[in-house]
Amino acid sequence: MKSYSNILKCGAAAIALSLTACNDWLGEPSPGSTELEDFFVSGEACLQTVNGCYVPLAWEYGPHSYFAEWYIGDIASDDALKGGQNIADGADAYDIDNFKTNASNGIILDYYRAKYQGIARCNLALQEIEKYVPDETIDERTKERYLGEAYFLRAFYYFQLVRVYGGVPLVKEVLDSSDKWQQPRATSEQVYESIVSDLKNAESRLWGKSEYAPEDLGRATRGAARAMLCKVYLYMKDYDSAYEWGKKFVDDEFNKGEYSLCGVYADNFTLAGENGPESVFEIQYVEDPTSDYGSGEGAFGFTRGTFTTILTRPRMSSLGSKKGWGWNHPTQNLYDEFEAGDPRRDVAIGVPDEASLDEVEVTYLGSPYYNGKTSYREGEDFPSISHDSRSPLNYRLMRASDVLLLYAEAALESGKDMNAAKWALEQVRSRARSNSDASGVLPAFPAYRGYSDNEASLRDAIRHERRVELAMEGHRWFDIVRWGIAAQIMDKDNGSYGKNESAEARAEMASFIPGKHELFPLPTEELVLNPMEQNPGY
User: Fold this and answer.
1) Rg (CA), the chain
2) In this structure, is residue 416 part of a structural domain?
3) Closest C-alpha to 468, from 488, 444, 442
């Protein structure tokens, strides 16, 4: 069910205010402009400002390119090929797919700038809401929740940045003077420490998921903050802390019914399944009959639907007006990762039937597959959308199954509780098993894929499960990088994926350079505005 669309509809005042706050303070106020002290006169202003903090999450198209996170999380990894009309379609995405990215890449630039616009909005919200004295329009508990949402979102934007670029400028105040424009680059460690601090601030203020009204489902919750703390500590390799926060999520959120696994796996990726029992955090979209293609606020658009649906639907003539652009093609390597009879494969990977193959206009480097999770399928049908570029389907950023597998990993790597790791792994597998029509599929660990009952096999099993459970949801690249195995998977000559990909795909690949390609370059235009040391190798 679509929820909290008021965030997208009612955030206009906050959007305008935040842009004014970031730019117009540098000159004399324009006639008729709203000063901060004139705007923050009621609790509604606080709500609108927090709503504005969410909006950059939904941006996928900017002045230079499409830049949804799956352009990196899926396409850079062994899960997906770029897709599109042909090799030349989307040069920036082609470079990401083939380790040829340079600092002028438009995806890398727009992604960077969109996250900082989100951070700027959070900084404004934190500055002004903190000063607001509760009154008849907002009580103390609601004020604290608004602050918690802003802390959570600032942490999330920085998490998105540090995974892609490493250390970045750490801006935690409103930049209200040109003297503050140039900020030093923080280290990755400093950024992660800031993320943890913000998430802990958020966790202490946010509400449980069940405390939100139906129209507010989809906002940041206490459970989302705990889940993110588990995840962030895993990136920091602080496994004890990751285990502690994962256990809080499991004990106080999952086991007490705040979250649960959907009985039917596929329900996670339907319109009706939005913000469901398994949803921990997802980007909210609403159907929009208009199109902007980069015009509007900050050149990041003004409509509130997602481009991802049209981008990832298959290019099949038989679909008529429902035809997509064929981006983000799942690889044969991902298809083969699924165990025989695993029902999740057919949810994640759309496969045109034999009769339809001659209607596939583009088979990208040998792959006719498409992403079944983001192409907005209802059963075997592709519903029509009001505008072909703007779909209402939410993008799932974190599900409870993701958190269970993070907890399993933390329990194993910390040495705290191997049985807890097995339990969490089995929760995810048993749900998938129950969705299968066949008997004997997806047995409990270790009775599959040649595993033994030891730590090394359990680690491999958890990593395998993350790949198939979260396939085509934008996680894979970031997982293999944080595990330190990107080179041994992706290298075109020696990698388990690279050396076995099709000859067509291998012909386009550059060599993976360890110590370079785990990160992407800081954008050239940003280095001109704010001189910083570039990432190694770029």
Assistant:
1) 23
2) yes
3) 442
Digit-coded pLDDT (tens) for 322-378:
888 999 999 999 999 999 999 999 999 998 766 566 666 667 887 889 999 999 998
In a domain, 386, yes or no: no
Residues composing the chain: 538
Range of the domain at 180: 6-287+397-529
Q: pLDDT, tens digit, for every residue of 414-452?
A: 999 999 999 999 999 999 999 999 899 999 999 999 999
- Tally of domains in the chain: 1
pLDDT digits (tens, 9 = 90+) for 216-267: 999 999 999 999 999 999 999 999 999 999 999 999 999 999 999 999 999 9
- How many degrees, rounded to 5, is the angle at CA 159 between CA 6 and CA 92? 90
HSE-up of residue 477 (Cα within 13 Å, Cβ side) = 24
Q: What is the C-alpha to C-alpha distance for residues 228 and 418, in angstroms, rounded to an integer?
A: 22
Is 349 inside a domain boundary? no
**For strand 370-371 and strand 349-350, is the pairing parallel, antiparallel, or unpaired?**
antiparallel
Q: Are 494 and 395 in contact (CB under 8 A)?
A: no
In contact, 383 and 374? CB cutoff 8 Å: no
The answer to whether residue 314 sits within a structural domain is no
H-run or E-run covering 398: strand 395-399
- By CB atoms closer than 10 A (0-12, 13-18, 19+), residue 289 is exposed
**SS3 for 535?**
coil
Lookup result for tokens 């339990």:
423
User: What secondary structure, in 3-state letters, does 88-103 show?
Assistant: CCCHHHHHHHCCCCCC
Letter for the amino acid at 236?
Answer: M
The CATH number that applies at residue 460 is: 1.25.40.390
